[in-house]
Structure formats: C-alpha cells, structure tokens
Amino acid sequence: MTGPLRPTYSEGQILGASDLNAQLTYERLGAVLHDRTEHLWGVAQGLALTATSNTDTGGNKFVDVSLSPGRAVDRLGRSIVATTAVPLDPAAFLQQIANPGKTDFFPVFIQAIDVPQPGSSQPGKCAVSLTTRIEESLQVSFGNPGSEIAILDQDPATVDEGFGTPGLADKVLVGWVQFAADPVNKFTAVAARANGVAVRYVGVVASDVVAGGGALTLHTRSGGARFALSLAENPSGGCLLAFGKQDGANPIVPTFSVDEKGNVTYAGTLSPAPVSKTQAESGIAYDGVRLPLPAGVTEDQFAQGKVRAHILVTPWPHPPTRQIMPDGKSLVALPFVETCSVDDDRTVRSSIRWVDPANADTNYVVLPSACSYLLVASGQ
Amino acid sequence: MPVAVYALSYKDTGSVLALCSLEKQAVVDQASANALRDRLVGDELAISMSTRGQPITIAAEDLVLDEVEVADPRALAGDPYAYQLAPVSDGPSRFGDGTPKQLVQPGNNVTLRLDADGTLTATTANDPQRINLYAILEGHSAIQVTLQVQSDVASFRFDERLTPNQAYAILFVGERLRTFVGLLGVEQGAEAS
Hints:
By secondary structure, chain A is mainly beta. Chain A contains four helices and 26 strands. By secondary structure, chain B is mainly β. The N and C termini of chain B lie far apart (37 Å). Classes of the chains: A mainly beta, B mainly beta.
C-alpha cells in the first residue's frame, strides 16, 4: 500500500527543486482528492455566459458573449478559475462547428489547461529560459447539440487515479449559445438551460449534515429572490420544516411546513387528493346511548382525528300521552322537544317536555325519549 | 347491511331502559354482549330526567345488552319502558348472554308512593313468586328489595329528607312489573302507567 508522500525537511538540508515541487504536489493532490471525493464537480461560482446586444454596420443584430469570472471544478478535481471575463470568439466557434443551425443551442465548455510561463530575468542573475511558473488557465470550446450529455454524465476520477490523466472530455459545461452564420457570423443568444439539460453546479457528498445553531437551510441561489427549505428549531423545543420563497435574508414565506408534531400546513392543493372514505350508520337510539361508529371505524381513529363524525339526530315524534305531572296528577300531556343532541363523546341527549295544556309554563315533566340518528364517518 | 335492535336492560329484571338500532353486530356470548354494551353506554347510562340537575345514572355493570327480535323498532321507540326481555326459546337463557331475546309487556302495574322521610313504597299485584325490585331516586344509588311470596308491598328507604309537594325523579324496575321512569310527588302516591 502506498500513501501520499508528504515532504519533510531537516535543519541544514539543501533544498532542491524536486523538494519544493514535492511540497506543491502533495498540497495539490490533497486539494483535488478533496474536491473529487467530498464534492460533486461542476460550476462553483460565476462562469455565466452574458450577452451584450450589438448591431453590425449592416444593421444586423447580434450579441457579444463573454464568460463571467468564476470558478469551476472538473471531474479530476482541478480548479478552473477565470479571474476576468473571457470573451467568446465567433471565429473560434466557426472553426469548431460546421454549418451551425440558426435555432440550435450549442454547448459551451471550459477546460483546465496548464500554460508554462518562462522565468523572468532579475538583476545580478543570468537570463533564464526555464519555466518557473505554470498558469492554471482555461480554454473555451464549443460542441454540437447533444454533445453536452456525455460531458454532464461523467463520473469523478477515483482516488487510485491520483491526479488522473487529463483528456479531451474533462470539460465543464457553462452554457449554450446560438449562432447566426448568415449574415453576421455572430452569436445571437445565450442560455443556461437548453436541449433538456442545464448547467451542472458543484455539490456536496454527505450522509449527514449538521447545523451548528439548530437551523439548517437549503437555498436554490446564493442570494436575491430564491427558494429555501429550512429545518429550524424554535425556543419552545419544537421544530419546523418549511419550504417557500425567500427574498435575500428576509424570512422564508412558507407554502409548505411540517411541525415537530407532524402537523402539515400547505398553501396549495394536494395532488392527487387523499382518498376519503365515508361510512355511515343510522337507526334509532334512546337517551343515554352512545352512538356507535360504523363497522371498521375504531375509537382510536376517531380520537386521533383521523376520522371525523358528522351526526344528525332527529327527535322521535310522540302523540299526546297520559303522564304523571310533578304535582302527582295524571293527565294527557302535550309533547315538546326539550333536548335532541349528542355530547362530545356521541352520547345521545334526547328528552321530551310533557306539558299540562292548562299550565304549560309551570306544570310539566321532562322525560327521556328516542331519536333517529345518522352518523357519517369520513376520513382516510 | 342488516340492522338489528339492541336493548339495554336492568340486569336482574330484564327491564328495558334504552334501545338502539344499528348495523348487526357479532353478539354471540356474554363477553361480546358486554363489549357492545360498553361501546354504547361507556361507564354508565345517564337518563335525562332530574329535578335537581343530576340525571339518574345506572352503572354499566348493572346493565345487560341483548339483541331483540322486533318487526319494527319504531313501534318501541315511543315507550321502551313498557317492555321486558324474554327468551325466544324455552332453553336456558340469561339476560345479556348473547342469545336473542324478544320483548314482552308485563301485565302488572305498580303503585308508588314517596314520603318526606325518603321512603318509597311500592304496591304491586299479589305475585305467587318472590320478585326483586330496584328503585333509584335521583342523586342516589339503586336500592334492592325482595318482595316475598304472598306479599304485595315493598319499602325503599333513601337517606334523604324530601320536600313535601315537590316532585323527584324515580326509576323503578321489577320482575314482571312495568318499569316506572318519571317524577313522583312527595306524599302523593302515583300509579305508574
């Protein structure tokens, strides 16, 4: 087994170029392995194609396209940095793409290239022609529509490949251009999404992401108007998972949220809508009876709110009937509904006020009665 | 789905105290009958009848549930207290044992008298058998009295002074007797009807 070789130095050691290069190699290998194993390759920042409208002397409109400063990482873990805007050259495009279609979107790639730089002369030193610096530069290339698919699908190089061997396919997609060969031989548009795919941005390889302060947020963009998914604890010991729009650093306006108890709040509609089952029970029940739930519906489902009960009770009709009044006398009393309802636990409260027709306000008796009921249970 | 009528009755007398019709349940033995009873009444059956705000309540364990064979439950709904349970067949049967019952109307009435000292006096037709009587005065638990052979008067003593000329809610049940549920004026005997 061989591991990375870390240079080490001792007092009085005469350092050669190989020692210093070994130091650099060690650092560079660590950096590319980190980017390849703990991140997903792609554009990290910037590197957007920007179009500036222009018109030629013939009045034909076109755009000047440039690549904004930024940084990307390719599948080998190499950092591709543009420190200044890079203009895209229509002539270079025509050299690479034959007979470009006017409506086609042509992918634009960048690729890391090492450009040796000769040493500079210094006072007291002889002029040198040896390379003393390597510019980690980039080159822009174009492809035919569809060629971006194979580039986007590339897997990162594995650790055993070390730095890997750079090839022609080790590119990073930064966007698309449209080109008009006739009459201007210029670019006419740019896009960050075309041909069914989009620019690939760097990612993170992680099986566990831990927030330091009890709140974790994912954003679709680094700033401005964007969407966010946040998981945040609150001072009362609860937690809220929320999704919605966020403008800059303003609070998220959630359109969907779930609290720590599983309560879901959403602003839109559920699609497909949850299937609601409805079952019913009906019959006659007497005062004091607790209305039964339909077959298949349990008290637990009812108590947990998974099933809702809609209950209709109707007083049972009574004809005038002989009753014993509070004064002990027996007479033919008239029936009036005193109560006809159900308690929270579905117990029927049904009673009739039997009234002495001659003294309705003072001489009456309230007796239990029956009712007819309809109980509809609905829920998932 | 088939519908069945279930009666909730006083366990020792079979006196019907409430009825409910619902989808036919699997009531096949005492355990399943008690389970449905508990579903229908919980811990107790509260009868909405009181002059002092407290309904008359009967504990669930003093109730039995039976499926009753009736052609039209609507005919019973007006006055279930007029009925008692009776076995459908001649075989051994107990109230609340899971076997279907039929409803019969007892022929014997009872005359009740409530006195200010808390005594409830029940006068029945002379019965050739001993019969068990139960009475509940609102705010009190049930009191049982066994009426001996050849006797026709039973007394229940509630531990409360009652106000003369005021009515109190009474539940009275007895074997082969019509159930009385209603108000009774103190010192004014009333014939249950």
